[in-house]
Structures are given as structure tokens and as C-alpha cells.
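User: I'm designing a mutation panel for Uridylate-specific endoribonuclease and want to avoid disrupting the core. Could you give me a predicted structure to guide residue selection? Please restate the sequence first so the numbering is unambiguous.

Assistant: Good idea. Sequence first, for numbering, then the predicted C-alpha cells:
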Amino acid sequence: MARRCSGRDVSLLLLFFTLTCTRLDASSPVVDQELSDIINELWKLDTNRLKPGTDYTISLQGKAGFVTQGTNTARDHAQSPLFSHVNEAKLKSIKTYSNFLDLLDNYEKSTGVTEKVTPEELAENYRFLDSILQTEVMKRAHKYLVSKGKSSTDLRLFKNQLYDIWFRLYHRDRIQLERAGQFEVALFTIVFLKSTVRVTHTVINVDEYQLEVVVYRHGRSIGTSYPKLLSSNNRHV
């Protein structure tokens, strides 16, 4: 004879189901498939990427130590630079990277110190934007953002939008853009424009990598943006 389920049995079943789902969610992050699809398109279009093992070599060493809450220092266990080899000649021969390298001395790294943008630096900012907008990566990113109603079809207005996102000074008197190529600009711009929350966390699959993309918003500008590697089958990582 079949046993009837009591209220206690149902409660236990619900508790078991809840705990099981929680474990599944914790081990299997929800992937934004639509975003993964467009980012993979951009990844394949990025012909300017340097090749690991050929154009550069990474020296994996010890990891940085735990940062205690309330401090901003960590013990670095790596004795040598992360990159043991970089083909700088090839890097500088690529227009987008060459224009990006010109930006690296334009920033005041200390917070609280007023940033002064010279006419030369302003020209370098726009020269960098002009160069990445000529790439297939940014052309596709622009088309995607237009389809989502996030950007204008007018290339001039889109460039102004990118300038506001990446170069506009915010209240800490500091420029946003510190490191980026055309792929990174496209990636973080899309994630930034797809959300209006202060901090966006998005999980995507790109090639052999699963990443959590984190973007902090400061009004109409990106404050901080970075990827977190969740898993990879790529031995070069």
C-alpha cells in the first residue's frame, strides 16, 4: 500500500530541492549566451592579437597573497615579471596598439591630484579611437549596439559616446582608460551599455575561456572594468 506524504515529508523534499539547486547554481554560473555569441564574433574578428608562445611568453609564478580587509597591499610571491618575452617590434607595428601606447603617459595615477589634459593628449585620445573604429571588431560592436538601441548609427556620435565612456574625467579627476585594445574596448563598452546598475557582473564563454566580466559605472563613464578567469582549457593561461 502506498504511503501518503505528510506535511513534514513535503517540507523535507522542498528543503532538499532548494539545497540541491543552490549547489548547482554555485557550481554552474549562469552564462549570458547572447553576449557570449557576440563576444565570440568579436574575438574571431580580432586579427591584431599577438600569439602566445610566439609573440609573447608568460612566466607563471606564485600568486599574490590574501589582502586583509581595510588594506590595499598584498605580498607578491612572483619573483620575475609576468611576461618573460614580448615581441615589441610587432606590437608597435600594429596601429591600434601603437596609438594605445601613446596614451600610457597621459594619466595622473595618484587620486586627489587634478588631471590636466593637454591638446597633444586630447589628439592622442581621438587618434586611438579613430584607429580602433577602423577595425572589424569595433565595426561589429557598433552594429550590435545600434541593433540594441544603445548607440547611434552616426559614427561621429558613436565616437563621442566612446570618448565619454572611456576618457571623460569623473569626480576623482582621473581618466578611465588605462589598458585596452580594440577587443577589450568593444567587450567592456557592450557590457557597460547593456546595464544601468552601478556594478555589473556578467559570465560569458569566449573561445576556451569562461570569464566573469566586471564593470563599475561612474555616471556615463566606466570607472573600473576587468575580467575574472573562471575556467579555461588553454594551457597558455
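For picking mutation sites, this is relevant: Residues 7-27 form the longest helix (21 residues). The longest strand covers residues 221-232.
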